[in-house]
C-alpha cells in the first residue's frame, strides 16, 4: 500500500494532552516553555533550511511548504528560514528573490544547494519529501544534496509505501538513515516506518497538518456572498484529478436531489497542471457530461480556478457538508480534509487512513470506496437532521483546534531543537596539527623496479592501472627534495623514477609518453600536454636540487632535449608546469637561454588571460576552476621574481588571493576546489570531491607568494592548506594516515576515499617537504608540536 498525501493528518487532543510531536518523539516540552508561555525562538536553533516546493507553484506540497514557512516565522520571529524550492521548469514560474530555486533535473543544482546551505550557517534542514518532486530515479537526486551536508535533518514524509519499488526503497532507506527526526502524517505511517523500515520509534512523530485559525461560523451567514442562499451546499475542493472520485459523488447526486431539491454540489479547483499538459480538460468535460446525463447538471457548479487561501476558507465556511469521495485506497491523508475539519465542516468520506482516524467519534461519516449509493444515503441523512449535522460540525471544529498552524510550528520547533541538541560537535575540540616529517615508506610501497604505480586499492598497489609519467615525475621531485630521508634511499628511488621518465621520451615525435601498463607496454605515443609540462617541471627541479651530481647532469641533458619541442605547449596548466621547471633551472643557471625563453613567452601568455571579459567577481585566468589551480598564479610569481617583472608578481598575488578566498569555508578552514566543481563557468566552487593535489598546490603557491610579499599573510594560507591533510577540513577528518605514512585519495560527502593512490601519497609528502623547508629557512620562524598552536609562525 502506498500511503500518499499532501498534508499531515490530525489527532484529537485535549488541553491536557501533549502535542503529538512531544508524545511520540520523546522531546522535553519544558525546554519549550517560558513561565507558561511558548518561547518565541527555537532553543539551540537560530537558522534552518526548509526544502520542498513553494508558492507561486500551484500544488499541495508548495502550499504546505509555504504555510509551514509562514507559521514558523510567526511562531519564532527570530528564526531565520531559508526556503529552497524545487522547480520542474515546466510551468515558467518566476520565484521571488528570497527563494532559492533548485532545478529538479539538474544534478549540479543539488550540489550547489548543499554548498549554499552549509555556507549559510544553517543549523538544521527541514525536508518535505514526496516522490515525484525531486529528479532522478524515485527522486534520488535529493540524496546528493543530503549527502553533501552534515546538518541535522528533520524530514516530513508525504508518501510512505509498505510495498515500494526497488528505487523507492533505496531512496527511502537512505533518507531514513540520514534523518535525525521524522514527521509522519498519520498513525498508520508511523506504524509502517517502525514495522517495515525498522525505524527507531523514538525519532518518529505524528504531527497534525496545520490549518488556519478562524472562528466557527454558521454556513447560512456566508452563503449569500456566493449566491448560495436557499441551498444545501456540498463542497469538494482541490486540484481536479481522476483519483478524487468526483464522478462517484456526481452519481450520488440524483438521490440527494430527490430528497433535497435545493442541494448544490460545488466542485472547486483547477484541473491538475500535469493533467492539463497531458490531456487538456478532458476530465472536467467528462464530469459535466455525466451530470447532464444524470439530470443533475443544474445542481452542480464547477468553480474552475485556483482559489487563494482566504477566499477558499470563505467558501468552506459557507458549505454544509464537505465530501472526499476518493477512490484510491492508497490515499492516506488529504489536506482538504484537514482544512474542512479546521473550519468545522461535517465530512462524508471514503475510508482512507486519515479519514478513518479523524472522523471517528461522530466528527464525520465514512462510506465504502466507489459506492455512490452509500454516499447519497449518508448525505441525505445529514441534510435531513439539523441537530445531527450541527453536532458533527461542532465536534469537527473542536478537533481542528489541535491542528492550527501555531501548533504545527511549535511541534516542529521541538523536533528541530531535539535534532540539533543530539547532533555531534561539528569540529573536534583538540587535534594535533603538528608538522609531519617527510617519510617515503608509502611511496616505496607503491613502487617497483619499473616506477611508481598509479592507483591503490586501499593501501595496496593496483597493478591493473599500471604507471604514468605524471606520478613518476612527482616522485622524482620528492626524492631530490626530501633531504630528511636517508641519502642512499633517495638515490636508489631517484634512479628508478628518472629511468621511467627517460624511457618515456619519444624522440620520434619529441614528446613524453604518459601511460604504461603493468607489463611495461606504453599505451600511447605521446601523453597529454599537462603530463609533458609536468615532466619538464620535474627535470628542472632535479637540475636545481641535484646540481653537480650524476642525476642532476642527466636531468640537464633531458631538459635541454625536451625544452624547445615543448615550447609549443598551449594549455595554461601545461605552460604553468613548464614555467615552474624553467624557473627552477634559472635559479642554478641564470644564463640558460631556452629556459628563459620559455619562461618569458609562457608568462606573457598567462598575463594575457582571460582572453574574454569576465564578471568583476570572477578574477581568474579562465572562466572555470579546475585542478592544480594554484599552479597558475605560482608560475607567474616565480617568473616575475626571476624576470624582475612587477606586473607578473602583482597579477600572481591578486589571482592567488582570490583563489584562496574561493578555497575558504565559512568557518575559515581550507576547502579544496572539488572535482564536482569542474566545468562550471563563472560559478563558485562546490565542496566535494576535494583532492590532495589542490592542497599541495596551494601550499607551494603560498610559499612562493611569501617570497615576494613576506607581510601578506601567505604562510597562514600555506599552513591552512597543509592542515587540510591533518583534519582541519569540512569533515574534521584527517586524510594523512600516520599509521602507514599514507594519504587518502580525497574528501567525499560520505568521508575520505579510503584508497591511497600515487597522486595523493605524493601530495602529502611534497607538502610536508615544502612546509619543513620554509620553516627551516624562516628567520625567527619556529616549528611547534603543540596541537593547540600553529605548525608555523613567523
Automatic annotation (TrEMBL):
Keyword Transferase (UniProt): yes
Domain Glycosyltransferase subfamily 4-like N-terminal per the UniProt entry, residue ranges: 137-212
Xref: SUPFAM superfamilies: UDP-Glycosyltransferase/glycogen phosphorylase
InterPro entries, sorted: Glyco_trans_4-like_N
GO molecular function annotation: glycosyltransferase activity
Keywords linked to the UniProt accession: Transferase
Superkingdom per UniProt: Bacteria
Record-given protein name: Glycosyl transferase family 1
Source species of the chain: Sphingobium amiense
Amino acid at each position: 500500500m502506498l500511503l500518499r498525501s499532501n498534508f499531515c493528518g490530525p489527532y484529537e487532543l485535549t488541553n491536557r494532552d501533549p502535542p503529538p510531536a512531544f508524545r511520540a518523539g520523546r522531546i522535553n516540552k519544558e525546554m519549550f516553555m517560558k513561565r507558561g508561555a511558548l518561547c518565541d525562538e527555537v532553543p539551540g536553533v537560530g537558522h534552518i533550511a526548509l526544502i520542498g516546493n513553494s508558492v507561486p507553484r500551484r500544488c499541495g506540497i508548495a502550499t504546505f511548504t509555504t504555510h509551514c514557512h509562514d507559521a514558523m516565522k510567526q511562531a519564532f520571529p527570530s528564526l531565520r528560514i531559508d526556503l529552497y524550492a524545487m522547480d520542474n521548469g515546466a510551468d515558467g514560474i518566476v520565484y521571488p528573490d528570497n527563494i532559492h530555486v533548485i532545478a529538479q533535473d539538474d544534478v549540479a543544482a543539488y550540489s550547489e544547494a548543499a554548498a549554499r546551505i552549509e555556507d549559510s550557517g544553517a543549523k538544521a534542514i527541514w525536508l518535505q519529501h514526496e516522490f515525484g518532486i525531486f529528479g532522478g530515479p524515485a527522486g534520488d537526486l535529493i540524496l546528493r544534496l543530503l549527502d553533501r551536508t552534515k546538518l541535522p535533518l528533520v524530514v516530513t514524509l508525504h508518501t510512505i509505501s509498505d510495498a515500494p519499488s526497488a528505487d523507492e526503497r533505496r531512496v527511502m532507506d537512505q533518507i531514513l538513515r540520514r534523518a535525525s527526526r521524522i514527521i509522519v502524517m498519520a498513525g498508520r505511517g508511523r506504524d509502517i516506518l517502525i514495522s517495515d523500515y525498522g525505524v527507531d520509534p523514538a525519532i518518529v512523530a505524528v504531527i497534525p497538518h496545520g490549518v488556519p485559525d478562524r472562528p466557527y461560523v454558521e454556513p447560512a451567514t456566508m452563503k449569500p456572498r456566493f449566491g448560495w442562499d436557499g441551498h444545501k451546499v456540498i463542497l469538494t475542493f482541490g486540484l481536479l484529478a481522476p483519483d478524487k472520485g468526483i464522478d462517484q459523488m456526481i452519481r450520488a447526486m440524483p438521490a440527494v436531489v430527490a430528497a433535497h431539491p435545493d442541494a448544490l454540489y460545488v466542485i472547486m479547483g483547477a484541473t491538475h497542471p500535469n493533467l492539463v499538459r497531458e490531456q487538456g480538460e478532458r476530465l472536467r468535460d467528462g464530469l459535466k457530461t455525466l451530470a447532464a446525463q444524470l439530470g443533475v447538471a443544474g445542481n452542480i457548479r464547477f468553480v474552475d480556478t485556483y482559489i487563494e487561501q482566504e477566499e477558499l476558507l470563505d467558501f468552506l465556511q459557507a458549505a454544509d457538508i464537505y465530501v472526499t469521495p476518493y477512490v484510491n485506497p492508497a490515499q492516506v491523508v488529504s489536506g482538504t480534509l484537514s482544512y474542512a475539519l479546521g473550519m468545522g465542516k461535517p465530512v462524508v468520506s471514503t475510508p482512507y487512513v486519515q479519514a478513518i482516524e479523524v472522523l471517528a467519534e461522530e466528527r464525520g461519516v465514512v462510506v465504502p470506496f466507489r459506492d455512490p449509493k452509500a454516499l447519497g444515503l449518508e448525505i441525505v441523512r445529514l441534510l435531513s437532521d439539523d441537530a445531527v449535522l450541527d453536532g458533527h460540525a461542532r465536534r469537527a471544529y473542536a478537533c481542528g483546534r489541535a491542528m492550527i498552524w501555531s501548533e504545527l510550528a511549535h511541534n516542529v520547533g521541538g523536533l528541530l531543537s531535539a535534532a540539533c541538541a543530539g547532533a555531534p560537535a561539528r569540529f573536534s575540540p583538540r587535534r594535533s596539527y603538528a608538522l609531519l616529517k617527510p617519510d617515503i615508506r608509502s611511496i616505496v610501497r607503491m613502487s617497483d623496479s619499473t616506477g611508481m604505480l598509479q592507483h591503490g586499492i586501499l593501501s595496496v598497489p593496483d597493478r591493473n592501472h599500471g604507471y604514468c609519467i605524471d606520478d613518476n615525475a612527482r616522485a622524482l621531485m620528492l626524492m631530490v627534495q626530501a633531504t630528511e630521508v636517508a641519502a642512499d634511499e633517495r638515490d636508489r628511488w631517484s634512479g628508478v623514477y628518472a629511468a621511467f621518465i627517460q624511457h618515456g621520451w619519444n624522440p620520434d615525435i619529441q614528446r613524453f609518453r604518459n601511460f604504461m601498463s603493468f607489463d611495461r607496454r606504453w599505451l600511447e605515443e605521446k601523453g597529454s600536454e599537462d603530463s609533458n609540462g609536468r615532466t619538464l617541471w620535474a627535470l628542472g627541479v632535479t637540475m636545481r636540487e641535484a646540481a653537480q651530481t650524476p642525476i642532476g647532469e642527466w636531468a640537464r641533458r633531458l631538459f635541454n632535449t625536451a625544452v624547445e619541442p615543448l615550447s609549443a605547449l598551449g594549455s595554461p596548466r601545461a605552460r604553468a608546469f613548464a614555467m615552474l621547471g624553467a624557473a627552477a633551472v634559472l635559479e642554478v643557471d641564470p644564463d640558460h637561454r631556452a629556459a628563459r625563453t620559455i619562461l618569458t613567452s609562457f608568462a606573457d601568455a598567462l598575463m594575457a588571460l582571460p582572453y574574454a571579459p569576465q564578471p568583476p567577481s570572477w578574477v581568474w585566468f579562465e572562466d572555470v576552476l579546475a585542478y592544480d589551480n594554484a599552479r597558475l598564479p605560482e608560475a607567474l610569481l616565480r617568473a616575475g621574481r626571476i624576470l624582475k617583472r612587477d606586473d607578473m608578481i602583482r597579477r600572481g598575488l591578486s589571482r592567488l588571493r582570490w583563489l584562496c578566498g574561493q578555497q575558504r569555508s565559512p568557518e575559515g578552514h581550507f576547502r579544496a576546489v572539488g572535482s564536482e566543481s569542474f566545468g562550471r563557468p563563472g560559478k563558485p566552487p562546490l565542496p566535494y570531491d576535494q583532492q590532495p593535489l589542490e592542497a599541495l598546490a596551494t601550499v607551494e603557491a603560498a610559499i612562493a607568494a611569501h617570497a615576494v610579499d613576506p607581510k601578506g599573510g601567505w604562510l597562514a594560507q600555506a599552513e591552512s592548506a597543509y592542515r587540510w591533510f591533518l583534519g582541519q577540513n569540512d569533515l574534521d577528518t584527517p586524510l594523512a594516515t600516520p599509521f602507514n605514512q599514507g594519504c587518502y585519495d580525497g574528501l567525499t560527502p560520505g568521508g575520505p576515499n579510503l584508497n591511497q593512490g600515487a597522486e595523493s601519497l605524493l601530495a602529502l609528502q611534497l607538502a610536508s617537504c615544502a612546509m619543513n623547508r620554509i620553516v627551516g629557512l624562516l628567520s625567527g620562524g619556529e616549528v611547534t608540536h603543540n596541537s593547540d598552536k600553529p605548525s608555523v609562525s613567523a
